[in-house]
Amino acid sequence: MEHGAVHAGPDLGLAVALLAAGVLAVPIFRLLGLGAVLGYLAAGVVVGPHALKLIGDPQAVLHVADLGVVMFLFLIGLEMRPAKLWAMRRDIFGLGAVQVFTCGLLLTGVGIAFNLPPAAALIGAFGFVLSSTAVIMKMLEDRGEVAAPGGQRAVAVLLFEDLMIIPLLAMVPVVASLMPGAHEAGHDATPWWQTVGIAAGAVLLVFVAGKWLMNPMFGILARSGAREVMTAAALMVVLGAALLMQLGGLSMAMGAFLAGVLLSESTFRHQLEADVEPFRGILLGLFFLGVGMSLDLNLVVSNWEIIVSGVLAFMVVKSTGIYVVARLFRARHREALDRAMLIAQGGEFAFVLYAGALAAGVMDAETASGMTAVVILSMALTPLVVIVGQRFLPKEKESLDGIEEAADLHGRVLFIGFGRFAQVVSQPLLAKGIDVSIIEIDVEMIRAAGQFGFKVYYGDGTRLDVLHASGAHTAEAILVCVDKQEAADRIVELCKGEFPHAKLFVRAFDRGHALRLINAGVDYQLRETLESALVFGRHVLVDLGVEEEEADELIQEVRRRDEQRLEMQIAGGLRAGMTLMRGNIATTQPAPLVVPRKEGAALNPEAAEVIAED
Questions:
Q1: 209 burial class (0-12, 13-18, 19+ CB within 10 angstroms)?
Q2: In whole angstroms, what separates CA 489 from the centre of its chain?
Q3: Cα 90 from chain centroid?
Q4: Are 55 and 1 in contact (CB under 8 A)?
Q5: Bridge-partner residues for 504, per DSSP?
Q6: Which secondary-structure segment (H or E) carries 84?
Q7: Are 66 and 287 within 8 A, CB to CB?
Q8: Which end of the chain is more exposed for a tag (fewer CB within 10 A), N or C?
Q9: Is the dihedral of CA 293, 299, 304, 310 positive or negative?
């Protein structure tokens, strides 16, 4: 920020501007369904040197904000145990390598088509191939897909891209030496073997420290009881590994990730995660703000035709390459499309590569600035592309290989939905030898049940034709055990109208759902947690020293109160009978009298008014 006077202390105006930008922009973008990353990027553009000019030096912000990426990758590493990482080796060095080199060669052709010299086109292409780990991991985290199979394959590709920064940086002076007039220019190139040796030494040091030094050190600090020292030690480990990798020519993020992997089996893993997490969030947001501030709007405006066409061409060609490679590695159509949209952008490592290319004479200043703008715009567009893609792309139909669809079933009892609840319900019926038919819409659940000896057919119970095919017209009882309330209500409506002869037993989600089912006229409904919670509570009472007979009486009292409350709610709505619920807030009313054992006898209500929809 520009000031007329020199301040000796920290620039609080800069800090306030950054925090205010994030605090204002991110909630708005989240409410619009655009995600936090796009909010930070947009806020950075607004407060940066090319818009409101509240902050004049985005590079200063980025230098600090890089620590957010470092800590983010450390936390990801903590989730990646060595055995898990080894299991991903095919995706990392197979899928990752094929994708990087395929996209790199395709994008080199795009650069040449934009009249870039071959050397500049090659470096520009491979710089764009290195996607933004921070942007992609943040989006995967927001969607809860980091641990999903598709998310894990995306992580594997990102890991290989991070590894590629070393050979690519080493390649820059080699390419410079092959350019016409390179020897006259006098560019000195570090021998490739020296670069690789230094990098390997840095990795080895991090490995040795993580495997044999970290646990003893944290053990000593834990015994000292100094909580703040443990936090300082956690930060020291993360930043130390990042620094060591940086000195070895590798990316800081890769160093932090490796440190996280090595500490993933440590007894102090959860403590480390808790210590680093608060710093990670705010610094990662600062990184995205810095990227937004780095976008040179003047350059984009003056060369908008070339910049915009370059962004579109690079993203379309890269996403096409990603999709083709994903399909070659047997990814489903939907996963391949999602990965193509997610990893279609360039990343922060491109800035480092382009700076090296500029210093080595491979790129001129105008080309380096233009490619940097293309990368930043692609990073900003990616969250928007993913959101639009998820909303408009049709959901991929799951494969039904090895699964039979419901057709001409004739079981005495029809199960609709076969999760944990229905599986338990089925046991006494099967023990009696009752013939049952089972339909389920979750393909994975059908396959899992098949491994335990259940024949489950694929069928959507909310469709009348499927109910007929499942034998609902001949079944004596229909058991609706689906997870979703809306689906259960629809099935009840169909069964009451089309199959009135069948007794209808329905799993209720909560009290409000139970009331709807009672009003719909089902033969029996049961809230899915009621009986298990009562049995659980009885065991707690007995283990606390309450006599078994008294514990049984207390559970029966709770059951009677619940039944009476439900009867009151049928007539008066969900809020009726709340005084029958016991609360832990002290009241001035006297304690209830002893509850009569006679079924249906009047109860003295408690004074505590509690809203519960159990």
A1: middle
A2: 31
A3: 22
A4: yes
A5: 478
A6: helix 82-87
A7: yes
A8: C
A9: negative
User: Cα separation of 504 and 478, whole Å?
Assistant: 5
What pLDDT is recorded for position 308? 92
3-state helix, strand, coil in the chain (%, to 5): 65, 5, 30
The helix-helix angle for 485-498 and 511-520 (nearest 10°) equals 10
Would you tell me how many other CB atoms lie within 10 Å of the CB of residue 325? 23
- C-alpha 511: how far from its chain's center? 32
Q: Report residue 31 as tokens.
A: 């409410």
3-state SS string over 461-505?
CCCHHHHHHCCCCCCCEEEECCCCHHHHHHHHHHHHHHCCCCEEE
Cα dihedral: 404, 408, 410, 413 (round 10): 50
Give the mean pLDDT of the chain.
Answer: 80
Is residue 288 within 8 Å of residue 40, measured between CB atoms? yes
Helix/strand/coil for 89: helix
> End-to-end distance of the chain based on CA atoms, in angstroms?
55
Say how far residue 267 (Cα) sits from the centre of its chain. Answer: 25
CB 429 within 8 A of CB 413: yes
- Record the tokens describing residue 372, joined without a space: 């940097």
Q: Could you tell me the CA-to-CA distances from 309 to 119, 239, 250, 296 in Å, in that order? A: 21, 39, 32, 17
CA distance 80 to 88: 10
The position carrying tokens 């690079």 is 314
Determine the Cα–Cα distance for residues 123 and 127; give it in Å rounded to an integer: 6
pLDDT tens-digit series, residues 327-344: 999 888 888 998 999 899
Please give the helix or strand (H or E) that residue 437 lies within, else none. Answer: strand 436-440
Alpha carbon separation from 553 to 352, 472, 531, 536, 560 (Å, rounded): 73, 41, 15, 15, 10
Q: CA 119, CA 172: separation in Å to the nearest integer?
A: 9
Quote the CA–CA distance of 237 and 261 in Å, as a whole number: 12
Is the pLDDT reported for residue 600 higher than 70? no
